[in-house]
Amino acid sequence: MKKSIFAIALVFFVAFMIVAAFGMRLFGEPIISEMDDYYIQNAQAETGANNVVTTIVFDYRGFDTLGEATVLFTAVLGITALFREAAK
After folding, report:
1. Within 13 A of 70's CA, how many CA atoms are on the CB side?
2. Contact by Cβ (8 Å): 40, 52
């Protein structure tokens, strides 16, 4: 029973990987999006920043960046606490 479930899961996984491989775009081919043009045209007027990448990271996605920084800080704090106990 376990072998048949594993075989079915393997078939689905391999099929998914093949479909994903054929659905990939060529390396270096840009993705054209309406949002790209919007950010490039309106970033400086809406935020006052000259760098569009900085504007997207800190102004448009500020809460997401804050969450990522919180997770990173928590991970570093946890690892520091683990190694601090090991050093004693």
Report:
1. 6
2. yes
For the segment 20-75, what is each residue's pLDDT rounded down to a tens digit?
999 888 888 878 788 888 888 998 999 888 898 888 888 888 888 889 999 999 99
Q: At a CB cut-off of 8 Å and minimum separation 6, what does 3 contact?
A: none
Locate 43 and state its tokens: 């970033």
The answer to whether the CB of 57 falls within 8 A of the CB of 65 is yes
Q: Contact 80/73 with Cβ under 8 angstroms?
A: no
Whole-angstrom distance, CA of residue 29 vs CA of residue 7:
36
Tell me how far apart the alpha carbons of residues 35 and 70 are, in angstroms, rounded to a whole number: 27
